[in-house]
């Protein structure tokens, strides 16, 4: 049901970080923040402000995406339910697996994507903070099933978009979950950046 390229499958696992023992979306993004801040030589104050903004935005993203999932009339099923119960393929399974190798899907509504929301909130702060979206950087993963441990990005938005669509390629989200999560996350970033930790 999902046609993936080899690179899309690699990206799906690179961003997975779903299981205990992995640093999951916020931790992976904070790790990237640290590496980017170090590479750009931020001083102590600049570093503290950047991490505070990123952390506030991702905390707000976690609240907002759970509100969307649980406090709206939209209770969207996951692809596995749509494909199986919709009669398209009763044996279909998502790519995502637990450490025992069993195919799994998250046990809460699909809309909107948490990965997409976290990624866009992070990218939104990063591009506003540095005054540019076109900053190249590498990111790492500690997901044991990922065939690659590092990926290169040419912009913060590119990383957020790949994070969002990795969930589609993993078979646990629909494209609109990803797009709406990206929109939600960037709105959160804009609010946080324009209202929090402003220069006195």
Automatic annotation (TrEMBL):
SUPFAM superfamilies the UniProt entry points to: Acid phosphatase/Vanadium-dependent haloperoxidase (SSF48317)
Xref: InterPro entries: PAP2/HPO, PAP2/HPO_sf, V-haloperoxidase
Superkingdom of origin: Bacteria
Segments forming domain Phosphatidic acid phosphatase type 2/haloperoxidase: 56-190
TM helices/strands, residue ranges: none
Stated name of the protein: Vanadium-dependent haloperoxidase
